[in-house]
Write a structure and sequence with these properties.
heterotrimer; A alpha/beta (271); B alpha/beta (334); C mainly alpha (297); B: 334 residues; alpha/beta; eight-stranded mixed β-sheet; four-stranded antiparallel β-sheet; C: 297 residues; mainly alpha; MetI-like fold; 12 helices; 0% strand; nucleotide-binding (chain A); ATP-binding (chain A); ATP binding (chain A); ABC_transporter-like_ATP-bd (chain A)
Chain lengths: 271, 334, 297
């Protein structure tokens, strides 16, 4: 077994309640480990707390309690700029909507060059070479560097976001619903790209998703979350063929497929 | 007798660069009580096709063709007959219920408004009927819900309220524009089940717009696939998943990952989906098609009615039964 | 065409491509519309006249010719003369210089200061933002012209005091608009992305936020320019700004008031018309620009 690049223990995040009501635990006692080069999925519906876990791991949200360890170092407190720059080499994030995650006033090439320059003291020629290399790796052409995000399609924008995240050569890539907003035919292209990247370099994925089919395609291990808690965890294949928990089974049964019949499982959902 | 007939519908909308074709010759037909799934990626024109049935197209749009609801023409109809259509025969369900339900009014006001206005009910009768409608969509404590505001309800509940409002006028046809796209999978399953039950009980026809081919095939009688403003294929939902007729449908089926098996690489359709105004001469799918021939780039294929279904592809004869319908390389092969 | 089928990335750029300069110019004209184009045309005209006033003006604006007082328009004086026999057209041309120079100075200063305050306040947030917001609220309650009056009472009448006072008056407007826009902008994912890459706060503000806020800031500045022009003329009219015998529209209007009582309305009407048209142009242009900034956001 290779080393663990992410170790999360007993993570908890409380948000102030609505209109003075008691605090709400968005994440409650979540723990998991991610090995180097592994792909782990966190699956859940809206309100499950899966995105909050990702944001805490990235340092975009501060945990109420619990520990987060990335690449053997515990993450806590408010990081300085230098510390953030160091952390960038450990873990990077790919957002759901590439139109919002790319600066619309910045050319593609400049976005990637900046991400490289922040980490590595390279000369102009080397910078240019690495940028072209990254663009090529995500299936774009060198001339795309001259364009602005609005001149690209949604799929191409997500490729740019992935290239920018890879620029720092991180050990972990967190993908927060990174293919959810894409058309089906584009989604398949990006999923293949993510598989290719994992074959070509040592990188672990933490894949946040609501889509079991996508998770099955990409991740060896899966955690199922519901209302802030881990419901079930295990090998994706095993979890999908022999779920131990009722909730996991309901999630699986809800995926449309040939011969699928939608069911009214509960006639009274809570508000 | 058909409930909805669309013939050679063309929609052009105004943009900065002049008029742009969004829908490019759509012809479809829905029988009484029948459900047709209209599947497409972004830019395919599926949504505007549905909206055009109710006259909801953008200002300055240029619409030609023929649309008939229950034998009555819609295009060119007066504002008054369109209103009558919307209040009696056809109801629409949208993707985002929050954008279509006034947030400052109670759920009850929203539901009873249509009943009082269109069916002339008094307040008490309308409220009684509304509680019954909510029960029909699986909301048992209707009286409490009527007093709540939209923000107090989850997305799934609100979509059910939207469906309750849609069936309030006892329509013959429901236009559902991605009604479950914003919902969780378990909620989607419930909403689809409710829609299915209501449709069967009341014999309502449905035009179901979605980007999810599997969802359409599993819940509708027939499925039509749109690409670049045209319907490229339409056949029975029972046979479509196993025997796609058009290379695009085959590509869509193949590129969607499955929960049953993982493959090393998904078979992909290269390029990106295009809109009608971006295509040139020839077949609009030619640029991405793995089966492309020289004539595909020159001449646009006509829609052919086969026993299996309708398809717009030059090579439909030789491709019947030959197109793959799912990822071929199983995880066992890796 | 074969590239389309082999490389997934090329299909889209084939359709989008890069904007050619001519296309860009034409689309800019389309966005401005006829009123916008007219406004730009008039602004360019005024700017050229102001810059080239020494070359274009038919006479010395300050050369008095008492014998020719209130001369009617003629070949020698295209727009006639004022009470002191000075060429009115030349005075209006030179007056454009004062109007433009002072109003641009006010807007430039207040935009730079206001934007800086807003960016820092919105980015740092917390106590700093709360404090800045309160101060802005207080300054906001005081009309800019009051600051100018205060500055003049300390520094004496003249353009410097007026410009400084009005700058102080305009800064809160800029800061409030930019702060609101920045608060919306920092919630965007690209700001988080830059933060996660380890960019410093200063770099995020200057390299990411500022370029995205630029259209809004420019639109705001152009709109405020109109108000600054009015305030400046008002202060001159009251005798607190530029001092005679300098050529200035506000002063011309003031003098024109006396002349009008003697039956000569040329001065007041022409100076008023110059100011009115300039203000209208600036406001039309500012309006167009802010609509575009909104659409972009």
């Amino acid at each position: 077994m290779s080393e663990q690049v992410v170790r999360v223990e007993n993570l908890r995040k409380e948000f102030p309640g609505h209109r003075g009501a008691a605090t709400v635990a968005a994440v409650d006692g979540v723990g998991f480990e991610l090995a180097s080069g592994e792909a782990l999925a966190i699956v859940g519906e809206s309100g499950s707390g899966k995105t909050t876990v990702a944001r805490m791991l990235m340092g975009l949200e501060r945990p109420t309690s619990g520990t987060i360890e990335v690449c053997g170092r515990e993450r806590s407190g408010r990081p300085s700029t230098a510390e953030r720059r160091r952390r960038a080499r450990e873990v990077q994030l790919v957002f759901q909507d590439p139109f919002l995650s790319l600066d619309r006033a910045q050319r593609i090439g400049s976005a990637i060059e900046t991400a490289i320059r922040l980490q590595f003291p390279v000369g102009r020629d080397e910078l240019r070479r690495r940028t072209s290399e990254l663009l090529e790796q995500v299936g774009l052409l060198p001339r795309h560097a001259e364009l602005f995000p609005r001149q690209l399609s949604g799929g191409q924008r997500q490729r740019v976001a992935i290239a920018r995240a890879l620029a720092a050569e991180p050990s972990v890539l967190v993908l927060d619903e990174a293919v959810a907003a894409l058309d089906v035919s584009i989604q398949a292209q990006i999923l293949n790209l993510l598989s290719d990247i994992r074959e070509s370099r040592e990188i672990a994925y933490l894949f946040i998703s609501h889509d079991l089919a996508v998770v099955n395609q990409l991740c060896e291990r899966t955690i199922v979350m519901r209302r802030g808690k881990v419901v079930e965890a295990g090998a994706t294949r095993h979890l999908l063929t022999a779920p131990a928990e009722d909730y996991t089974r309901r999630l699986i049964d809800a995926v449309p497929r040939p011969g699928w019949v939608p069911t009214r499982s509960r006639d009274l959902a809570g508000a | 007798m058909s409930m909805l007939t669309i013939e050679d519908l063309r929609v052009r909308v105004r943009s900065r660069d002049g008029m742009r074709t969004i829908v490019d010759g759509v012809t479809l037909d829905i029988g009484r009580g029948e459900a047709l799934g209209l599947v497409g990626e972004s830019g395919s024109g599926k949504s505007i096709t549905a909206r055009t049935v109710l006259g909801l197209f953008p200002r300055g749009a240029d619409v030609t063709g023929r649309i008939e609801v229950d034998g009555e023409p819609v295009l060119g109809a007066s504002r008054r007959s369109l209103t009558a259509l919307r209040s009696r025969k056809v109801a629409m369900i949208f993707q985002d219920p929050r954008a279509h339900i006034n947030p400052v009014h109670r759920v009850g006001d929203f539901l009873t408004e249509a009943l009082r206005k269109h069916l002339g009910m008094d307040r008490a009768a309308a409220a009684r009927k509304a509680v019954g409608l909510l029960a029909d969509v699986g909301i048992a404590d209707g009286e409490r819900r009527l007093r709540q505001y939209p923000h107090e309800l989850s997305g799934g509940l609100l979509q059910r309220v939207m469906i309750a409002a849609a069936i309030a006028i006892e329509p013959d046809l429901i236009l559902a524009d991605e009604p479950t796209t914003a919902l969780d999978v378990t909620t989607q399953s419930e909403v689809m089940a409710i829609l299915g039950d209501l449709r069967r009980e009341r014999g309502m026809a449905m035009l179901f717009i979605t980007h999810d081919l599997e969802l359409a095939a599993a819940t509708c009688d027939r499925t039509a696939v749109m690409y670049a403003g045209q319907i490229v294929e339409c056949q029975s939902s029972r046979t479509l998943p196993d025997r796609p007729l058009h290379p695009y449908t085959s590509g869509l089926l193949g590129s969607r990952p499955s929960i049953e098996a993982a493959v090393r690489r998904l078979p992909v359709i290269p390029g990106r989906p295009v809109a009608a105004f971006e295509t040139g001469a020839g077949c609009s799918f030619a640029g991405r098609c793995p089966m492309v021939e020289d004539r595909c780039r020159i001449e646009a294929p006509a829609t052919v009615r086969r026993t299996e279904g309708a398809v717009a592809c030059h090579r439909n004869e030789e491709l019947v039964g030959a197109l793959p319908s799912e990822p071929t390389v199983r995880s066992a092969d890796v | 065409m074969s590239a389309l089928t082999t490389n997934p990335a090329t299909a889209a750029t084939a359709a989008t491509g890069r904007l050619r300069p001519r296309t860009r110019l034409r689309s800019a004209a389309g966005l401005l519309g006829v009123p916008g184009l007219l406004a730009v045309g008039f602004l360019v005209l005024v700017a050229v006249v102001a810059v080239a006033a020494p070359l274009l003006a038919p006479a010395d604006p300050n050369f008095p010719a008492p014998l020719e007082a209130y001369a009617s328009p003629s070949g020698a004086h295209l727009m006639g003369t004022d009470a002191l026999g000075r060429d009115l057209l030349s005075r209006l041309m030179y007056g454009a210089r004062v109007a433009i120079l002072a109003s641009v100075a006010i807007i430039a200063l207040s935009t730079v200061v206001g934007t800086a305050v807003a960016l820092v306040s919105a980015w740092v947030g917390g106590v700093v933002d709360a404090f800045v917001s309160r101060v802005l609220d207080i300054l906001f309650a005081v009309p800019g012209i009051i600051f100018a009056l205060a500055a003049v009472s300390v520094m004496g009448p003249g353009p410097t005091g007026v410009v400084l006072g009005l700058t102080l008056g305009y800064t809160p407007y800029v800061a409030r608009v930019v702060r609101g826009a920045t608060l919306r902008e920092v919630r965007m994912d690209y700001v988080d992305a830059a933060w996660l890459q380890g960019r410093s706060g200063v770099a995020i503000c200057l390299r990411h936020l500022l370029p995205n806020l630029r259209p809004l800031i420019i639109a705001q500045a152009v709109s405020s320019l109109g108000f600054a022009l009015i305030d400046l003329s008002a202060l001159s009219f009251l005798g607190l700004g530029v001092q005679p015998p300098a050529a200035d529209w506000g002063l011309t209007m003031r003098a024109g008031l006396d002349s009008a009582l003697r039956g000569h309305v040329g001065e007041a009407v022409s100076a008023g018309l110059c100011l009115g048209l300039l203000v209208a142009s600036v406001i039309v242009l500012g309006d167009r620009l802010s609509k575009q900034a909104e659409e972009r956001a």
